[in-house]
Amino acid sequence: MFHIGHLRLLQRLKDMADELIVAVSTDEFNRGKGKKVMIPYEQRAEIVANIKCVDKVIPEESWEQKVDDIKRYNVDIFAIGDDWKGKFDFLKEYCEVVYLERTKDISTTQLKKSLTNFMSIPKEDIINAFEVIELLKKDFE
User: Fold this and answer.
1) What is the mean pLDDT of residues 7-12?
2) CATH of the domain spanning 4-103
């Protein structure tokens, strides 16, 4: 679920580098991590590739590929959000590892919870709410 926090992270990463390479998890890898895939990898990769600060998108197929990717693409800095702090310190042998502070008050987990809560509202209640809004709008015209 791409959100403004991800965009700001990518922008900050680009400020640190000449070339920003972003690994986007494949559908298979996400399923292996227990994540539900709603948007296919090809579409997610295309979206990320078209963000102006991103220079290259590569598929992330496993946790183990990171060392190979660092070597293959001559990566100087591996950077990720600080919610992963310490998890990638093993890469310090190959490049600088940076954990960037997350965007305040933005959370994928919270957005997913909000969406789940919204989806649990009966369809009739949502339709009724829109009808009330339309009536109120007419009163103020």
Assistant:
1) 90
2) 3.40.50.620
Query: Which of 35, 56, 87, 112 is the catalytic position?
Result: 35
Q: What pLDDT does residue 48 have?
A: 96
Give the pLDDT confidence of 92-118 residue by residue, as tens digits.
999 999 999 876 666 666 655 766 676
For this structure, is 104 an active site residue?
Answer: no
Average pLDDT over residues 45-74: 96
pLDDT averaged over every residue in the chain = 88
What does residue 5 show for φ and ψ, rounded to 5 degrees? -65, -40
Residues in the chain: 141
What distance separates the 2 farthest-apart alpha carbons in the chain?
A: 67
Task: Give the residue range(s) of CATH 3.40.50.620 domains in the chain.
Answer: 4-103
Distance CA 106, CA 6 (A): 9
Active site includes 71? no
